[in-house]
Specification:
eight-stranded mixed barrel; disordered N terminus; binds ligand C2E; binds calcium ion
């Protein structure tokens, strides 16, 4: 098997057999990684476009593989999703995030953390209990946790997903819809969900600068979110021009390389101490 080949390729690939072997190997490694210290979180600031304040951070998973180096989440999360492993993985991520949340609280610098979930988590009847157990174990208030749920994950089984989200929201956990805009969630469905935040899919945010059609999508999603009383977030913001545009559209929060990259907790602490707002 050639070293350095990309993994997690979508679509037909004549080397699919090789990929299958690679995937199996990677999956075995991932199981091991869960019990070692190979998985860690980086945190990306979500910044208010109104006052430049750091409102919260999104936790993003990183895997430092002993031989392959840094494996991107897009290469191993789908793998975990297609097997039973995603339950353990999300639990592990929540455990790391809530330990960090606790550490920030103890340091007198509390910060809200957003954690990504997968479709499978939303079909797990125990998931709300798992989350509650971890909050209790770490002594973290539910309001300090926000769960990001992708629009596509919701669409997979809207009724079941809604029931689970309602149980989570009833505990005081905030729910955000991630990657919004590419799916076909109706306004009616949106209104029936216990959500507080809408994140515009970053593909639109990035295409916005070259294409007026994409810009219209971004504007429409922001307007929809505002009309529903939700906090609107634009992610993947890479230029100052895009920031200005988004603010003029009434977008509440921005996230992207132009503001800050995802950072380890110590780097984030340093960044926070230097951050003077927009
Ligand atoms: P996502 O949830 O949509 O996360 C946003 C992705 O955009 C992250 O990629 C982030 O590093 C990247 N990003 C942030 N700002 C910019 C920017 O200005 N420009 C560009 N081009 N990209 C930007 P990352 O960390 O590689 O994660 C990719 C995806 O993997 C995430 O997309 C999410 O779907 C998944 N993921 C990451 N961590 C977790 C996790 O702990 N659990 C689950 N279930 N999924 C995760
Ligand atoms: Ca996300
Ligand atoms: Ca996203
Ligand atoms: Ca995504």
């Amino acid at each position: 098997v050639a070293k350095g080949r990309s993994i997690g390729v979508a679509g037909y690939d004549p080397l699919d057999d090789v990929n299958t072997i690679e995937r199996l190997a990677l999956l075995g490694d991932l199981r091991r990684a869960l019990s070692n210290d190979e998985l860690y979180l980086v945190y990306q600031p979500k910044i208010s476009l109104t006052d430049g304040a750091l409102g919260s951070v999104e936790a993003l998973l990183r895997w430092k593989h002993p031989e392959r180096g840094l494996v991107p989440p897009d290469a191993f999360i789908p793998l975990a999703e297609n097997t039973g492993l995603i339950g353990h993985l999300t639990r592990h991520v929540l455990d790391l995030a809530l330990a960090q949340s606790r550490a920030w609280m103890d340091a007198g610098t509390p910060l809200r953390i957003a954690v990504n979930t997968s479709a499978r988590n939303l079909h797990d009847e125990e998931f709300d209990r798992t989350v509650r157990g971890l909050l209790t174990r770490h002594g973290v208030e539910p309001s300090m946790l926000l769960l990001e749920v992708t629009e596509s994950a919701l669409m997979a089984d809207p009724v079941r997903a809604r029931q689970l989200l309602q149980r989570l929201a009833a505990q005081g956990i905030a729910i955000s819809i991630d990657d919004f805009g590419a799916g076909y969630t109706s306004i009616k469905q949106l209104r029936s969900l216990p959500i507080t935040e809408l994140k515009v899919d970053q593909s639109f945010v990035q295409a916005m600068e070259q294409d007026e059609g994409e810009e219209l999508i971004v504007r429409s999603v922001i307007e929809l979110g505002r009309n529903l009383g939700l906090t609107t977030v634009a992610e993947g913001v890479e230029t100052p021009q895009a920031l200005v545009k988004l603010a003029s559209f009434g977008c509440d929060v921005a996230q992207g390389y132009v503001l800050a990259r995802p950072m380890t907790a110590p780097d984030l602490d340093h960044w926070r101490s230097q951050w003077r707002g927009l």
